[in-house]
């Protein structure tokens, strides 16, 4: 793949080199060539000052043996910003038009050659020379053009050497050019394609589920490397969470199956006793067995109700009947019901509201269930001498409810899983006949009331659960 990508880079580069060479040749002909048609030389892109000077003789006339320029020729010189001198056979000026002050009126052959050869020798002018015959007389004329329009630079060369150099030299130059292009293109292509190969291999690893992609975020593809690293981290995190969820789901299914299997076994056993015609049971035994069957059935029904409720809350399928009520009174009723239970009447549960009336808009039934789960968990997962406090504080923009205990605390790993739907804590001193959905349901109900819940716990020191319900700020007096 690396060589393929390098080749894909080098082929366009070679084509560009060929095209660039062709453009240079065309440009050379463009600037050095001239139009052959005299009428098109002024407007033609390939204009030749040499040919133009040679053809300018058609604008030279003679009056009584004296040279002169036609009006058309004068207009041509003005358009070209040029000047002209016409010399007799001795090099003396016989006619001039727009001649610079520094231009001599007499030229020796050597001076004429010097001024023709070097641009700028006469007031930044480039001179072109030709002649015209009139009878037996020959008249030399000099036309000077601005250096900014045309310039001449003389070079010395050997035609014989050029003829010998043509084949070997041109081929050598082209060969060296292509070799240089290939060398530069190869190293540049490697530098350009190597990161692409790494990126493609990284994507292949991600597609195979191997989230080990880690690149140094640098160079031309810095942003791509950063994105790949972030993608690998996100996929790795997702895979870990997915594995964790699968494990918790398996544990939940195992626990729920066990919890259902136990009451089913009781129901089946007592049902078979009641249905056995050969077994003679008393009225008290029949009533006792029937009560056990009803109790186990209700327990199974409760498990299924919890499961259905958590999915309804998760998918927002359960409408809440919200009404304004006193949350302090609701919490007091929950605590009274708890302490009235003979199983928990000896536990230390303290209710510490900052005021007796704190009004919120909430669904009484569901919020009662949520706080019942939270408070009961604080009681049943700690020893009998643990002190549980429930505090209610009314703030300007929120109502804060804290359920705090000084019990055994919760491990950090368990705190992170506490509100997971498939998790059932093990930090309890008795067998808890729950479905593992109680805390998840409590969190979902609180969030359905736009509230938030946060848990902080330290092993050996206790657990603190903070619930916040937002509310509109009270209007200032007089408004």
How would the blueprint of this fold be written?
Layout: H1 2-32, H2 49-55, E1 60-63, E2 66-69, H3 71-80, E3 83-87, E4 93-97, H4 109-117, E5 125-134, E6 137-146, H5 159-207, H6 222-275, H7 283-314, E7 323-326, H8 327-340, E8 348-353, E9 359-362, H9 364-380, E10 387-394, E11 398-405, H10 412-417, H11 438-448, E12 452-458, E13 462-470
Parallel strand pairs: 8-10
Antiparallel strand pairs: 1-2, 3-4, 3-6, 5-6, 7-9, 10-11, 11-13, 12-13
GO molecular function: ATP binding; phosphoprotein phosphatase activity; phosphorelay sensor kinase activity
Keywords: ATP-binding, Kinase, Membrane, Nucleotide-binding, Phosphoprotein, Transferase, Transmembrane, Transmembrane helix, Two-component regulatory system
Transmembrane segments: 7-32, 169-188
Structural features, described:
The chain is α+β, with helices and mostly antiparallel strands. The chain has three domains: 109 residues, Beta-Lactamase; 93 residues, Helix Hairpins; 148 residues, Histidine kinase-like ATPase, C-terminal domain (Heat Shock Protein 90), CATH 3.30.565. The protein is 50% helix and 18% strand. It is built from eleven helices and 13 strands. Strand 1 and strand 2 form a beta hairpin. It is rod-shaped, with a radius of gyration of 52 Å.
Provide a compact summary of the structure:
It is built from eleven helices and 13 strands.
CATH homologous superfamily classification of the largest domain: Histidine kinase-like ATPase, C-terminal domain
- Identify the CATH class of the largest domain: Alpha Beta
* Percentage of residues in strands: 15-25%
The CATH topology name of the largest domain reads Heat Shock Protein 90
Q: How are the strands of the largest sheet arranged? A: 8-10-11-13-12
Order of helices and strands: HHEEHEEHEEHHHEHEEHEEHHEE
Tally of distinct domains = 3
- Count, helices: 11
Separation of the first and last Cα atoms: 75 Å
Describe the main β-sheet briefly: 5 strands, mixed
């Amino acid at each position: 793949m690396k060589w393929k990508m390098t080749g894909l880079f080098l082929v366009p580069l070679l084509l560009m080199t060929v095209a660039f060479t062709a453009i240079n040749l065309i440009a050379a002909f463009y600037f050095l060539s001239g139009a052959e048609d005299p009428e098109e030389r002024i407007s033609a892109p390939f204009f030749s000052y040499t040919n133009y000077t040679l053809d300018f003789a058609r604008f030279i006339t003679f009056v009584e043996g004296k040279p002169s320029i036609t009006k058309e020729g004068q207009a041509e010189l003005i358009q070209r910003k040029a000047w002209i001198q016409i010399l007799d056979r001795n090099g003396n000026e016989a006619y001039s038009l727009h001649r610079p002050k520094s231009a001599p009126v007499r030229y020796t052959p050597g001076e004429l050659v010097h001024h023709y050869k070097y641009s700028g020798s006469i007031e930044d002018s480039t001179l072109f020379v030709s002649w015209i015959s009139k009878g037996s007389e020959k008249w030399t004329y000099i036309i000077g053009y601005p250096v900014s329009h045309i310039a001449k630079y003389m070079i010395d060369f050997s035609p014989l050497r050029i003829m010998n150099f043509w084949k070997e030299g041109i081929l050598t130059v082209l060969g060296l050019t292509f070799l240089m292009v290939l060398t530069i293109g190869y190293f540049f292509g490697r530098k350009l394609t190597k990161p692409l190969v790494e990126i493609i291999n990284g994507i292949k690893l991600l597609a195979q589920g191997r989230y080990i992609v880690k690149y140094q975020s640098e160079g031309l593809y810095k942003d791509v490397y950063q994105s790949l690293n972030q993608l690998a981290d996100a996929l790795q995190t997702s895979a870990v969470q997915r594995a964790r969820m699968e494990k918790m789901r398996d544990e939940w299914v195992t626990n729920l199956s066990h919890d259902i299997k136990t009451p089913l076994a009781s129901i089946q056993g007592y049902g078979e006793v009641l249905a056995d015609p050969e077994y003679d049971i008393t009225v008290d035994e029949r009533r006792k067995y029937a009560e056990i069957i009803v109790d186990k059935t209700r327990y199974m029904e409760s498990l299924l109700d919890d499961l259905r409720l958590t999915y309804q809350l998760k998918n927002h399928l359960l409408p809440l009947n919200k009404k304004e009520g006193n949350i302090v009174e609701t919490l007091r009723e929950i605590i009274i019901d708890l302490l009235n239970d003979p199983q928990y009447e000896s536990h230390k549960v303290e209710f510490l509201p900052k005021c007796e009336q704190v009004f919120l808009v909430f669904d009484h039934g569901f919020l009662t269930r949520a706080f019942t789960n939270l408070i009961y968990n604080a009681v049943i997962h700690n020893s009998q001498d643990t002190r549980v406090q429930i505090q209610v504080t009314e703030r300007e923009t929120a109502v804060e409810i804290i359920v705090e205990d000084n019990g055994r605390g919760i491990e950090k790993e368990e705190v992170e899983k506490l509100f997971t739907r498939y998790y059932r804590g093990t930090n309890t001193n008795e067998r808890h006949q729950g479905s593992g959905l109680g805390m998840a349901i409590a969190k979902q109900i609180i969030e359905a009331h736009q509230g938030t819940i946060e848990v902080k716990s330290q092993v050996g020191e206790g657990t603190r659960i903070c619930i916040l319900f937002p509310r509109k700020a009270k209007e200032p007096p007089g408004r």
